């Protein structure tokens, strides 16, 4: 799959699925820019720091991308956090709940809002957002489950709005994937259950970030032009 004609921004591209997606798209010929709260190590390409909860920070990111490229063919928004895992309802503080929704839902809104002017300059614009199996199957974190359901709800309206502008919007909804975020959940669970972390990881049947990256690379390609809605992975 040749992506050499594509200019792609991956937000949350320092680690995990975002990093795997950035590397694969670049390997397939795309011009790939990474943005993340933390600087990506070992990335041979343009990268920017961004706080997706701050509109000023997001505006600055897209101003820099506009200066660098002038347009975008695809926004891949993978930035997200998970906090409050296994915390009972009565003990979950509102600050944690709001922080998770702010990053995962508001961050998706702000990135798509400020990406839209650059995407409109592409002939084949695509937005790929990230939800999770937690949105429909439950989560270790009340805040995370709510936030990913929020991404799904935001997507439905956004996709309808963008369709008239020929901007295709998709959501990727991964299952258990071997990322630092998922391992942090497994670590807490292993400690609660009094089992070894390695045994817990091995028993979790985790998928690889590279597998999800192949889905992302396909979605941003012209071959996925007829794909609509939420794409679920293992």
Describe this structure in words.
The structure is a single chain. The chain is α/β, with parallel strands linked by helices. It has one domain: Rossmann fold (3-Layer(aba) Sandwich). It has helices at 16-27, 55-69, 94-119, 134-137, 142-163, 180-193, 197-202, 209-219, and strands spanning 7-11, 31-36, 47-49, 74-77, 126-130, 168-173, 229-232. A 7-stranded parallel sheet has the order 3-2-1-4-5-6-7, sandwiched between helices. Helix 3 (94-119) links the parallel strand 4 and strand 5 (126-130). 42% of the residues are buried. The model has no long low-confidence stretch (mean pLDDT 94).
In short:
This protein is an alpha/beta fold.
CATH class: Alpha Beta
Q: Report mean pLDDT, rounded to a whole number.
A: 94
Share in helix:
40-55%
The main sheet orders its strands as: 3-2-1-4-5-6-7
Structural class computed from helices and strand pairing = alpha/beta
Low-confidence stretches: none
In DSSP terms (H or I, runs of 4 or more residues), the helix count works out at: 8
Radius of gyration, CA atoms, in whole angstroms:
17 Å
Shape: globular
| Overall tally of domains | 1
Distance N to C terminus: 22 Å
Largest sheet: 7 strands, parallel
CATH 4th-level superfamily: NAD(P)-binding Rossmann-like Domain
What percent of residues are in strands? 5-15%
- What is the chain-wise order of helices and strands? EHEEHEHEHHEHHHE
Architecture, according to CATH? Answer: 3-Layer(aba) Sandwich
The oligomeric state of the chains shown is single chain
Provide the CATH topology.
Answer: Rossmann fold
How many strands?
A: 7
């Amino acid at each position: 799959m040749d992506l050499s004609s594509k200019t792609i921004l991956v937000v949350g591209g320092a680690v995990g699925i975002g990093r795997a997606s950035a590397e694969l798209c670049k390997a397939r010929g795309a011009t790939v820019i990474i943005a993340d709260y933390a600087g990506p190590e070992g990335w041979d390409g343009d990268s920017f720091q961004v706080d997706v909860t701050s509109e000023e920070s997001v505006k600055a990111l897209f101003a820099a991308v506009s200066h660098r490229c002038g347009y975008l063919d695809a926004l891949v928004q993978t930035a997200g956090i998970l906090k409050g895992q296994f915390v009972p309802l009565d003990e979950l503080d509102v600050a944690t709940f709001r922080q998770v929704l702010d990053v995962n839902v508001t961050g998706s809104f702000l990135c798509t809002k400020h990406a839209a002017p650059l995407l409109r300059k592409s002939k084949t614009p695509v937005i790929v957002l990230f939800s999770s199996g937690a949105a429909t199957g439950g989560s270790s974190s009340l805040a995370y489950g709510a936030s990913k359901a929020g991404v799904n709800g935001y997507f439905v309206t956004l996709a309808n709005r963008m369709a008239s502008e020929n901007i295709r919007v998709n959501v990727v909804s991964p299952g258990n994937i071997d990322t630092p975020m998922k391992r942090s959940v497994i670590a807490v669970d292993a400690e609660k259950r009094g089992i070894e972390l390695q045994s817990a990881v091995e028993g979790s049947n985790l998928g690889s970030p590279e597998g999800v990256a192949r889905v992302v690379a396909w979605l941003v390609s012209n071959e996925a032009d007829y794909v609509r809605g939420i794409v679920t992975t293992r």
